[in-house]
Every structure is written in structure tokens, then in C-alpha cells.
# Entry
Amino acid sequence: MPGASVVPGQVDGRPNLTLVDADGTLEATFIPELGMIGCSLLHDGEQLLEMRGGPAAYEERQSTFGIPLLHPWANRLRAWSYELGDVRVALDPQSPRIHRDGATGLPIHGLAAAVPYWKVLDVHGDGDAAVLRAQLDFGACGDLLDGFPFPHVLDLVATVTAGRLTIRVALTPSADAAVPISFGFHPYLRLPRSDRRSWTIELPVRRRLILDDHGLPTGESEPIDPAEISGPLGDRSFDDCFDVLERPADGGPAVFALADRRRRVTVAFGAAYDVAQIYTPAGAEFLCIEPMTAPVDALSSGVGLRMAEPGTTFTAEFAIAAEPLERR
# Structure
């Protein structure tokens, strides 16, 4: 059996890197110069990611697809300004780095969409694992600091091994100031060649935040039984935030899943991802299972917001895996 490998290529004229596991079952492709977007995830040659507008729309108007990083905040903020301690930040609605939510007019999904500032530090494939490591020096980018004046460095390591893609992000403050932690990812998952009404979902969640008409937390919540919310997706729609996840007794990852008769796809949330956003509009042929380090609007509310202190590193990891259920 050949070892894992990394294959350079291009998509829409942009250089990309594809990580391939040892037996060629799983292939994950990233575009470093476009915000380190995960632009493809093939399992047995079939696409597991929803492409939506693809790289062009992501670059032109921050329209998410694939597996985008949402940084330094995931989901919406309730206003175009926020305060953290004695720091008040006024966001510029005209900034090309800020995406305006079409439904609410609010800033959404942070500042790092499609940024060209990532640098590839290491890429290799040998034995069982294909690895890509890249770095974003956020503190060196003035257009990013304007909207989030907390200098730091992000290290992202993507690893593909034995049918699993693992993405680890390490955030290290690069100045003598703590950095708020409110980032996440937005995987658009799909099951090819099957109707979403036949999909089965597994949601290990114990509490749902009550949201207002703008998708913002009201301060209230309700308990959830995972057995009742899991099951056939059918015609159900979701745009829900869950801030208590069910984990195994040993403290292992919370494992979400999406399956049809042919394939089961799991998303395993490491300990640092203690919030999940589940998103699928009515009739959409995708399901987003979004690992988040803080609830929606944490930069404004402070609820669930953690800080990375100078001299420390905050690390968060999640993994997407696929396994066949039937021979095709």
C-alpha cells in the first residue's frame, strides 16, 4: 500500500494542496491564499462538501462554502461595535474584510474570509499521514486589526489519515494583551446521490439557546434530549445554537453524525469546541455541523467567552471522518 501523500494543484487558477490518506480513500484540498479554505473533501471519489458559489464567490463577497474558518468570531454580532474591557471596537460597514449577513444586516463570520495572508510552513506525506501546516500572523495585518485589535498568531495544522481529516488551530497572543476566543468552522456537509429526506442525523446536544428573530441569543435556553432531536432529517430545518454538548464519560469528543444507507460522516468536537451551531435551511441538500469556541455574539455579550493570556496558547481541534455502510 502506498503511503499518504500531498498533491499540489490548482482550482480556478489558485494553487491548492490536496492531502491524500494512504489508501486513497479520503482526499482533502485546501487553498492557502484564500483564507486556508477547505475547498474539497472526497470520500471514495465522491464530494462530501457543498460548493455553493465556490472560490470565486468566497473571494468576491465572502460567501462561505466547503470548510471555512470563521475568525475572530463565528456567526453574528448584534451590532457594528463591541466592547471588551476598556477596548471599544467600531466595525466599518464598508470594510471589504467584513461580511454583512443578508438576512439581518449584521456583521457575520469574522474578518478572515478569503484573506491572502496565510503562509505554508510545512507540507509532507509519509507513512499513514498527510500533513499541511500554515500560519496567519493576524497582528501583522492592519486591515484585520482594525476590526479585532488583539494581536495574535494562528497556526493551522490539517492532517489526513485513515479516512479522517483533523484540523487543529493554535492561537498564541503576540503582544502583551489577552486575546478573546470566539472562532469556529462552518463545514457544509452533504451525502452525494441521496435525498436529504432520507438522511439520519445524530446530535449529541443537551441545551439549546433561545434565539431572537435575528438569530441572536436572548439569554434564555431550553434542555434538549439528544434522542428526541436526532433521527431522520426529513424536511426539518435548523439554524440553532447548542451550548451544552454530550460527551463520553472519559471526556472524549462529542461526535455528531450524518448518514444515509451508503455512508456515515462524523464530526468530532474536541474539548475546546463546546458550542455547536446546526444549520440547514428547508430543502437544502447540505447540513452544517459547526464547531464553535463560544456562543453566538460572545464578543458583545461576554457569555461563554474565554481569553488566551500572553505567554499561553489556546488549541482547538475537530475531525471529519467518513465510513462506508454499504458496497456500491
Observations:
- The chain has a mean pLDDT of 96.
